[in-house]
C-alpha cells in the first residue's frame, strides 16, 4: 500500500467531510419522508414576566431596606440570591445597615488571588480592602495599614448553593469584618485582644538591624482552650488564626449559636454592649454550659426529637469542652441501649461524629458489629464522611501544620503553630508527636544542625508551642544559633496504640535569623494604631 503524504491525507479528509455535509440534509429528509421518526425540537423555557425588571425591583427593595447597592461584576445577581441575602440582612440590627462608606456588595464568580482563580468551594465570600501590619520606628506604633481600595464584600458562586443557616452565618461573618473596618478595628484594640487571648508577635526581617522597621502578627495563646466558636465549614482552629477572624466568628456566633454566651461569656458581653447595643437573639438561662447542653440533649432524646439530637451535638462541636463532651457521650450511649428503628439508630450514631472523644468512634464500631447500622449510610452524613478512616489516612493526616512562627522568649528558642488535623486525630484515637529539624546555611547548601521531637500528646485545642531546647535530641546543652541563616522544618507524626503504622504530615518550613537583641513581643496590654486611606477614614467611628 502506498502512503499518502500528509498534505494528501488532509485533502482527502476534507473532501470526505464536505461530501457528508452536503448529503446529510438529503439523508435526514429521506428518513422523514419514508416514515422515520420526525425530528423533535426541544422546547425552550420561557420566563413568564419581566425577569430583568424583577431583579431590578428586588435590588431597589434591598437598597431601600438596608442602604446597599447590589452590583454585578462577572456574574449577575439572580432573584433567588437577592431574596436569600435580604432574609439574612433582616436578622441584623440597624447598626449594620447604611454604614457610611460602604456602597454595596459585588456578585463575582470566584475569588481571584492575583491572576489565579481560587479552587471552587474554598472561599465563599471575602471582605475588602486588605490590611498590612507593620511597626514603624518613626511612629513608634504597631500600625494597621488599610489598603486604598473601595470597601466591599464579594459574594461567590458556591455560597448560594449552601443551606440557609450556613449561608446566613457566612454573610453575618463578613458583616462582622465590615463592622470591624468602619469602627477602627475593635478586634485589634487592647480590650478585645486581652479578653480574646492574642498578643503581638514581632517578626524581624532576615537582615534586620537595630532601629529598622518590621512586620508583626497576632498570636493566639496555646494555654487558652476556647476561642470563638466556628461555623460548620471552618476547621476547628479557625478563630485562632488571627484576632479579626475571632471577632467575625463572634459576631456570627452571637446571632446563631444558642450556647455562645455560656462557652465564651467575655466575648458575648463585648458583642452585646459594643456591637449589638443590647439586642439579643437567645434568652439567658441559669446554669453552666455543660449542665445546659446535657439537659437539652436529654430532653431531645426523651421527646424522640432526633433532628434536635443532631442539632445539639452540632452546636457542641463548635467549641472545645471535654467535660460537656463526656456528659453528652454518656447520654448518647444510654439512648442507644434502647432498641429503636434502624433509621433512628442511624441518626443517633451519626450524631456521635460531632463528639471529640475517641469513645464515639468505639461506639460506632460496636453498633456496626451488632449490625444495627450500615456504614455506608452513616458516611453519607457530611461530618462522618469527612472524618472517616480513608479520608483521615489518605488526606487529613498529610495536611501540614499551619501558621508556623519562631521566636525567642526568656532567652529560649520556641516554635508555635496550629494543627488543623489534631482534633480529628484525637477523635479517631490517635496520639500526635511533632518533629523538627534545624538546618543552617553553608554556602549554597543547608547543613543539618539539630533535630527534635515532642512526646506523643492528645492536646485538645489544636494550638501547639514547642521549646526547641527541651525537645531537641542534642541534649540540654543545645543553644539555638544566633545571627545565622537557619531553616526550621516541622511536621506531625500520628500513631494509634492498636496499630503499628505511623502517619506523617507534609513538612512546613520557615526561614529565620535569630536575633537576641530583638524584642519578639509587643507591649502588654497589646495596642495598635490603624491608618486609613482618605477613601475610608472619613467614615470611621470608634466603638463606645
Structure description:
- With 544 residues, this protein is of the alpha+beta class.
- It folds into 3 domains: 49-268, Collagenase (Catalytic Domain) (3-Layer(aba) Sandwich), CATH 3.40.390; 285-387; 401-514, Immunoglobulin-like (Sandwich).
- It is 37% helix and 21% strand.
- It has a 5-stranded mixed β-sheet.
- A hairpin with a 4-residue loop joins β6 (131-136) and β7.
- α2 (51-66) runs parallel beside α3, α9 (289-302) packs antiparallel against α10 and α9 (289-302) packs parallel to α11.
- It is globular, with a radius of gyration of 29 Å.
- It starts with 5 loop residues before the first helix and ends in a 7-residue tail after the last helix.
List keywords for this structure.
544 residues; alpha+beta; Collagenase (Catalytic Domain); Immunoglobulin-like; 5-stranded mixed beta sheet; 5-stranded antiparallel beta sheet; 19 helices; globular; disordered N terminus
